[in-house]
Design goal:
Length: 253
């Protein structure tokens, strides 16, 4: 009887201990799962905030570059960038990924890209026989520099001067391609040469951001350089579209 009573008490105690262990494990498992779920939630929240911050920063950068004034910048462009625009861009609402348009930066049927590099730039610049004020410099012919407002030039000489200056701009572009490892096509080199002829080496260096930007970003940022004299000019808007189209699609045949 004594042994049976002892065994009964042992079995009871054993069941009690096992039940307590089971409840403890279940509780611990639930707590562990709760902690894991909480950590996952925190991680997702942090990731979302980081993504929003990056997109806001990118928007701020775009705002800064939209203030770049390329007037008189054929020699060198070094505008004062507005830090307030950067901060404003960070604070503004960011587009959701599904709202962002993805695709070629330009498909404009009104912008024609024909001929070769010299004729392309000549068409964008237009010919002026007499020297004129050109946002910080005196220009003549197809946008080359003049010594005074009294100068005049023939179309033939203007084409020679244009070709000479365009080759200088092209050399700048090819040098950057070699230095930074860009594999630009002839069309892309031509587009960037036209851009450099218009904005100067400083504008070109800003555009490629020291060789850190890829082709897609370059073609998109190219459109931002549309101001002179502190104002957006329709002629520059159309020119940037033409250059971006040449960069992404090539010449129309």
């Amino acid at each position: 009887m004594a042994f049976k009573s002892y065994k009964t008490r042992y079995d009871t105690l054993d069941r009690f201990v096992k039940r307590q262990l089971s409840e403890t494990k279940a509780s611990a498992g639930e707590a562990s799962r709760a902690r894991a779920k909480k950590m996952i939630g925190l991680g997702q929240s942090a990731a979302a905030k980081t993504e929003a911050s990056m997109k806001s920063s990118a928007q701020g950068v775009r705002k800064m570059f939209s203030q770049v004034d390329i007037g008189g910048s054929r020699e060198q462009t070094n505008p004062d960038l507005d830090i307030a625009a950067w901060m404003q861009g960070i604070e503004e609402t960011v587009q959701k990924p599904e709202d962002i348009e993805v695709g070629p930066p330009l498909i404009d049927p009104d912008v024609e890209v024909k001929g070769d590099l010299i004729s392309f730039i000549a068409g964008l610049e237009g010919f002026k026989e007499k020297a004129y004020e050109d946002y910080g410099q005196i220009s003549i012919g197809f946008g080359t520099k003049a010594g005074s407002l009294d100068e005049t030039i023939s179309r033939e000489q203007a084409m020679k001067d244009l070709t000479k200056e365009v080759m200088k701009s092209r050399t700048i572009v090819l040098k950057a391609a070699k230095e930074y490892g860009y594999d630009w096509t002839e069309n892309q080199v031509d587009a960037l040469t036209s851009f450099t002829y218009n904005t100067g080496q400083g504008g070109f260096n800003q555009l490629i951001e020291g060789g850190t930007r890829g082709d897609e970003e370059i073609s998109e940022m190219m459109l931002e350089y549309n101001k002179a004299g502190g104002k957006v000019l329709e002629g520059l808007v159309k020119r940037r579209k033409a250059e971006a189209k040449l960069f992404t699609q090539g010449y129309e045949r």
